[in-house]
């Protein structure tokens, strides 16, 4: 999906790692929460409380899920993070991303 219809956008930004990772929260008409953001080059670690879909729109990064090997996305791609997990990122080029949250 390249755009969202009938959505509410939260004006206040989510800012992490001294501004190197930012996003805006979007609430879709059906109540689904997504965030649209930018990550600057660097190394980051995030924790999840619900299952997440990380859709990379542009950029280059490596990601590592718990107990797995490093994987690379160059350009665009998708990976999923299970609920209650920690994952690591090595952002090599500015990354444009969309994160979807699943309350299963």
From TrEMBL:
SUPFAM superfamilies: RmlC-like cupins. InterPro entries: Ppnp, RmlC-like_jellyroll, RmlC_Cupin_sf. Coiled coil: none annotated. Its EC number is 2.4.2.1, 2.4.2.2. One of its GO terms (cellular component) is cytosol. It holds the Pfam family Ppnp. GO terms for molecular function: purine-nucleoside phosphorylase activity; pyrimidine-nucleoside phosphorylase activity. It catalyses: adenosine + phosphate = alpha-D-ribose 1-phosphate + adenine; inosine + phosphate = alpha-D-ribose 1-phosphate + hypoxanthine; cytidine + phosphate = cytosine + alpha-D-ribose 1-phosphate; xanthosine + phosphate = alpha-D-ribose 1-phosphate + xanthine. It comes from the Bacteria. Keywords: Glycosyltransferase, Transferase. Catalyzes the phosphorolysis of diverse nucleosides, yielding D-ribose 1-phosphate and the respective free bases. Can use uridine, adenosine, guanosine, cytidine, thymidine, inosine and xanthosine as substrates. Also catalyzes the reverse reactions. Belongs to the nucleoside phosphorylase PpnP family. PANTHER family: PYRIMIDINE/PURINE NUCLEOSIDE PHOSPHORYLASE, PYRIMIDINE_PURINE NUCLEOSIDE PHOSPHORYLASE. This is Pyrimidine/purine nucleoside phosphorylase. The gene is ppnP.
